[in-house]
Amino acid sequence: TQLLEQSPQFLSIQEGENLTVYCNSSSVFSSLQWYRQEPGEGPVLLVTVVTGGEVKKLKRLTFQFGDARKDSSLHITAAQPGDTGLYLCAGAGYSGGSNYKLTFGKGTLLTVNP
Amino acid sequence: GAGVSQTPSNKVTEKGKYVELRCDPISGHTALYWYRQSLGQGPEFLIYFQGTGAADDSGLPNDRFFAVRPEGSVSTLKIQRTERGDSAVYLCASSSGRSNYGYTFGSGTRLTVV
Predict the structure, then answer these.
(1) Is B98 in Cβ contact with A100 (below 8 Å)?
(2) How many Å apart are CA A17 and CA A19, to the nearest integer?
(3) Which of A102, A104, A106, A109 to mutate to test the interface with B (most CBs of B within 10 A)?
(4) pLDDT, mean of each 10-residue run, chain B (114 residues)
(5) For residue A3, what pLDDT is reported?
(6) Any CB–CB contact under 8 A between B65 and chain A?
(7) CA B80, CA B91: separation in Å to the nearest integer?
(8) What digits encode the pLDDT tens for the residues A26-55?
(9) Which of A45, A101, A107 has the CB atom closest to B102's CB atom?
(10) Measured at the alpha carbon of residue B97, what is the angle toward residues A102 and A50, in degrees to the nearest 5?
(11) Which of A72, A106, B52, B103 is the most buried (most CB within 10 A)?
């Protein structure tokens, strides 16, 4: 059983479209992080959300942490080919446990076509 | 250094052989983590070091896996009697403290056991 479920697993869109990807769990996390990973590289941290209901914006990317701190979403406005990559969500402090250990979802593989 | 450095970037070994994977974290980062990423999966936690000691090795799959960090900086992940199922990308990450608001990952070592 996957602790963090990400959806969709694959997403292929045209440049300029908007999209939302989701990260859901039945467990509470103390914080949730989003990473983007490109082929042959390690994941790169995009954002950390800590407070239930928190919304953070990073240029065209908007991240939201659910009120109950069990889920999160990533919305991309006017997607560009440079946004292509594997988007991973990762939770820390699962059900009050240690904060240093991250539990990752399987990721959403996004392809933005020119 | 400026980032987390992992060597080698690729390693092909025969079943039953011993391998060592090296991680050089960001200078001054006291926390170091090893994760393993199999094809189509998110990274899975292996072990966490705070300074020289392994604070949590609960993710190591069995006693063929061992990691050290003797001087609190460079770490080596050691795998004995490799098996084909050990094939994966081994990722190292570091962070500056106990609170996990984001790791910096290296590019990983792709291990292939033939």
Answers:
(1) yes
(2) 7
(3) A102
(4) 91 98 94 95 95 92 96 96 98 80 91 98
(5) 86
(6) no
(7) 18
(8) 889 888 999 999 999 999 999 999 999 999
(9) A45
(10) 50
(11) B103
> What Rg, from alpha-carbon coordinates, does chain B have?
13
pLDDT at A14 (0 to 100): 98
And the tokens for A12? 């292929």
CA B32 to chain centre: 9
* CB of B4 less than 8 A from some CB of A: yes
**Contacts (Cβ under 8 Å, ≥6 apart) of B83:** B15, B64, B113
Contact B55 A100 (CB under 8 A): yes
| Phi, psi dihedral angles at A16 (to 5 degrees) | 100, -15
Asked if B49 contacts A111 with a C-beta cutoff of 8 angstroms, the reply is: no
Query: What letters, b where the CB count within 10 A reaches 16 and e where it falls short, cover B26-37?
Result: beebbbbbbbbb
Look up tokens 């390693």; give the residue: B11
Where are any strands of DSSP class E within chain A? 5-7, 10-14, 19-24, 31-37, 44-49, 55-58, 61-65, 71-76, 85-92, 102-104, 108-113
